[in-house]
Specification:
The structure is a single chain. By secondary structure, the protein is mainly alpha-helical. 47% of the residues lie in helices and 8% in strands. It contains two helices and two strands. The chain has a two-stranded antiparallel ribbon. The two termini are 20 Å apart.
Length: 53
């Protein structure tokens, strides 16, 4: 398990971002949080997040 960079709560290793939903919405707002998640999922599907492996 990895931890949220803001509140240190546990989040799944498979999550594409390093913060929990509660903190993401608190920091970025709900609309921007949804956009970040969607963009990160799209990047993961394209393989853009695995370039260092």
């Amino acid at each position: 398990m990895k931890r949220c960079i803001y509140c240190k709560t546990e989040i799944p290793e498979s999550q594409v971002i390093d913060f929990c939903e509660r903190c993401g919405k608190g920091v970025f707002g709900e609309k921007m949080f949804k956009a970040i998640i969607q963009n990160m999922l799209d990047a993961q599907k394209r393989g853009d997040l695995d370039q260092s492996r």
